[in-house]
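Bench notes, afternoon.
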Amino acid sequence: MNFLQITSLLIVLAGGFGAINYLFLKLPSAIGILVVSLLASFGLLALDLVWPALNIADTVRGIVTGIDFSEALLEGMLGLLLFAGALHVKLSDLRAEWITVFLMATLGIALSTIIVGFGFSWLTGMPLLLALVFGALISPTDPVAVLGVLREADLPKTLETKIAGESLFNDGVGYVVFLVLVGLAFPGDAHGADTSSPLAGAALLFVQEALGGAVLGLVLGWLTFRVMRRIDDYSLEVLLTLGLAFGGYELAVWLHVSAPIMAVCAGLLIGDVGTAKGMSEITRQYVEGFWKLIDEILNAVLFLLIGFEVFAVAFSGDVILTGIATIFIALLARLVAVAVPISLLRPFRTFSQGVTPIMTWGGLKGGISVALALSLPESEWKPVILTCTYIVVVFSIIVQGLTVAPLANRVGRAPDLV
């Protein structure tokens, strides 16, 4: 199948599954599409067992594996999704919560990576460095999933800003940590650092990716803003934001700086300074409406793809049990990643008791973790990593995603929540 045929098929399926969810399941849109996609996948696998002569599983598996999920997300959809998410987070709100967001996106990611890495190595016997790679890819919360859930939960603004800001930035930081660890675990790989001095190369790669991505995003966002100030044409200004998201992301990849961090920084600047000082009211409405629609459509396609990726995962009894155990390791790591930064900040500010459970349970994993697992170089441990990643992600999106809003509304109503 060519690109146009694959794209058409995905959009038709996403629309059809979305309609099924809307009419019958009535779950949140993205989660409902994932559930219907999983049910369809398992239905096809069951049909293949009943009538093996139809060869349905192999045919669908060929189509699914023909779609490079990792490349489609990391090199295509991710930039648009992060840019769209960042557009709706105001810098003024984020500035008030920046210390909490910073600690959770840096110290939190580091703690979670270490805990998951050591736990997964103990659980599977996997070499520690490779287990740390798994820790890095499973630790970031997925902004696509998290921001989708936030729409369903009526949270206080300050708590919503913490969760949204952390999910946007720890995704970029986690991706950089993943690249650094892959460079150490697989010397000579294309992602890797300078093998003549691995630690120095890893440190340089981290600084180059993280700082370079932030600077590039702010520079490109500022230049786009300056151009938009001189224009009063909503269709052209929407096109400029689309060019910023697409072109900036690809430029970041070409310059070997963090494209996710670039997209977040550019989106934050356009969403705050750009909408306030560079757009008319009608342009602001069109830009927000356009990116909300892009976000919804890509979310639907992404969660559809996650559901069908079951055909790319090798399931066996032992690995499934390992995946279930990994869920608890990932939740423990998430709890520590949230609790430690909050504990460090408690002497200086007040937090409600609801912050820790909400941010722990609301730290959803998503397609980014699956894409990173698929992008790993081939090794004897890759099938185990991929299967456990998939199990954690599906549990996170469906179970945590469906219960975090009621949890938040129950424990996050305290009047002193800040």
